[in-house]
Amino acid sequence: MNVKVVGAFLLVIVAAAPWSFAQVSDRKKAAGSVLGSLLPRESLGWRAEAEDHLYNPETIFDYIDGAGEVYRAYNFRELLSRRFKKDGKPDIVIDLFDMGAAADAFGVFTHDLDGDDVQLGQGANYKGGLLSFWKDRYFVSVYAEGETAETKDALFAMGRAVDSAIPGRVAKPELVGLIPPPFDDRRAVHYFHSYVILNYHFFVSRENIFGLDRTAEAALSRSGEKNDRIALLLVRYPVEERAAEAFQNFSNVYMRDFQGHGFVQTENRKWTAAARRGDLLAIVFDAPSVERAKEILAGVGTGRR
Predict the structure, then answer these.
(1) In the chain, is it the N or the C terminus that has fewer CB atoms within a 10 Å radius of its CB?
(2) Are the beta carbons of 209 and 246 closer than 8 angstroms?
(3) Which of 105, 95, 106, 220 is closest to 158 using CA atoms?
(4) 7-16 pLDDT, tens per residue?
């Protein structure tokens, strides 16, 4: 590249840079303003710091190290973090995630279902100074850097304020409504798009044998006693061809003795069974008998809506 071309290129960059930076800054301010309007500035003596912090899928690792990939797996758009202080008391932080879609807000909430079930938003958990809930397209985390009775009161007061500020309610993903009893316990259902999230909850394969991506949706639930639990996995694809391909891939890779029967007994002496209905793939793992596996598959679509 000759010097004149380089010089011209730099001139274009310099000329365009102020406009570009201004546009990015304006966008961040707009996003921060919208999210910030949903959060309180004060609660029970805790007051917000002057500056909020805004993160996107590229900068989230500056704030949340390893866990950032979980939120990225659910396609999150923006995160606004607001810290609250009160003299002599632990800080409280609200993290408000705009997930872009209600299904993904629900999904990221289902990633960690440990804790006490509380009435807030469209589903909420409380555990050890951490209150989390989802509502519409938002996932909310409110946590104290030290749990006391006073901080717990403040957490719930802040949570109720955010809940009230988010208008309306939306339905859970339709796929979740296909889960039959007893797998439809809300504290057992995980909703996701990524095979990494699947393997976190129930390891199937190091490879993405189901072809999961942002265009597909999956729900996993387990039922039974701790050492004798059955797993049910549902995956819905945008087109039937992909469901057929995933069914065949699962047969070839995971169940080499499938032989077209739709069920197989695995090394742990339990049964795995699979079925495809149009764009929906349903798989049962670790059933005590082939009859029970078939019964579960037959019940898919009969759960509470």
Answers:
(1) N
(2) yes
(3) 95
(4) 332 222 223 3
The tokens describing 91, both together, are 């800080």
Q: Rounded to whole angstroms, how far apart are CA atoms 61 and 44?
A: 31
- The pLDDT of 162-173, averaged and rounded, is 93
Cα 169 to the chain's mean position, in Å? 18
Q: What distance in Å separates the CA atoms of residue 69 and residue 58, rounded to the nearest whole number?
A: 10
Nearest CA-CA partner of 99 in 70, 119, 124, 129: 70
**DSSP symbol at 261:** S
CA distance 155 to 171: 26
Q: What are the chain's domains?
A: 3-165 (3.40.1000), 174-299 (no CATH)
Least confident of 82-96, 191-205, 250-264: 250-264
Q: Which residue has the tokens 């057929």?
A: 244
pLDDT in tens, 219-228: 999 999 877 8
Q: How many angstroms separate the CA atoms of 204 and 207, rounded? A: 9
